[in-house]
Amino acid sequence: MSAKGESWGSRVGLILAMAGNAVGLGNFLRFPVQAVQNGGGAFIIPYLVCFLVMGIPLLFIEWSTGRYGGRYGNHSTPYILDTMAKGRIWKYIGVFGIFTNIAVASYYCYIESWTMSYVYHSIVGTFNELDQTQITDFFNRYTTIGKNTTGIPYESVIFYVVCLLLNTYILSKGLGGIEKVAKIGVPLLLLFGGILAVRGLTLGTDGASEMFPNANAWDGLNFLWTPQYDSLTNPKVWLAAAGQIFFTISVGMGTVHCYAAYLKSKDDIALNAVSAGFMNEFVEVVLGSLIVIPIAAGYLGLDWILQNASFGMAFQTMPYLFQQWGGVLATLAGVFWFGLLFFAGITSSLAMGTPWMGFMRDEFNWSGKKGAWSFGLIALIVGLPTVFFYNQGVFDEYDYWAGTVSLVVFAFLETVLFAWIFGIKKGWAEINMGADIKVPIIFKYMIVTVTPLLLGWVLFASIPDMFNKVTNKDTNNKEWFADAYYAENFDSEGKKSGVVEAVDDSSIKLSFTNE
Ligand code: PHE
Ligand code: NA
Questions:
Q1: pTM (2 decimals)?
Q2: Are the beta carbons of 113 and 159 closer than 8 angstroms?
Q3: Which of 311, 353, 401, 483 is buried most deeply by CB count within 10 Å?
């Protein structure tokens, strides 16, 4: 960030920047995958509980922490936490948050770069006349470096670098640049997201079923939304749910601190925090579950989704859907959908650059330019392994450790700091200062008890899971849930029966016989 006295241009600008920060690829691509991998309806209950008892409280904590630190002229998590408590340890914890940002930004920008590339390929007509297998194949080639046969050598690397350059350039322009991108990107994203969601809903047994006789959009929605209670005691599901909540509302790594540091003491934070949080949840739970899953289920069937759930799912399916719309409409749909994913992505990845830049400014008095370019360079170095070894699972490792575990750890620590060290008395006053709404008092008690306890439990209970990750003994949730789901929902109706064909530590194969 550049000039000293910088602040948000307007309240609308602030809200859109914060909403842009929250609404991202997490809503459209990560949420459906997390939901599917953790049992669909089995995931939803822990997910909603986490939003209410950890998500909302953490939003209050981060907004007020940021505004508080900003009052003392600080713009980065380490310095902001330092104003709240004595002891260098908090500064180091803040630095840990910055590392999380860099790690997440590095793989996040890789997906963001796919969206740029897919806009390009929609325009030049690469997807025209391709069938579903060819579309899937295109994606697989695109993400296998060295095997690129998309015409441009090292295409995915090139788009990745371009994407980082663009982020860096906008960041070097300071807060105003971020605000401008959000003002364009967020409204557009909502508009086209709405259109596609309607399309996802109406993809029933009609047209799609002629091409894929066993596929149905509603299978996808049923799977997502049929609650399953047996997962409630599974810590793995809770960790995934908490991780997704933090990831999607952008807490647990300090971006909200940095944005809120540019607020004035009299500015509202309570209503703003809640609005940004609920807006994000609307986009995630409604738009996020109505697009990729039902559309993929509509064209490829639930079996395919259960076996292929990943960030890439939308890239492997949506171009084919658009081809069915034909001609100019196909091109336009491709441009808008991937373009809007791009806007969702960039308004979030920009946020991930601000903690590093703020820290360089607080610590070394670096200019916004220097901060931005150094950030871009570091993200590039950290990110290249995910680009080159995408298909070897490196990507998922980054997303697990940086995008899930680290967020929960950081959220736990900052809640303890806020509630018990800074003190809830001061903290509660800080949340309510300038507030445009009366924050229900229950949140005050939650922040001191339920929020840190649940966070602590999730972390503690997940230690075996983390251990298995390290020792590579990971067992796959997908297999277990898919099996249970099919046993429950299909055998009994006599429509389909499924067996788990082969299972090893890292992969599953399911085979289904249709009757
Ligand atoms: N919330 C963003 C998304 O859903 C990702 C993000 C996480 C952005 C953390 C900033 C900080 O895509
Ligand atoms: Na989000």
A1: 0.90
A2: yes
A3: 353
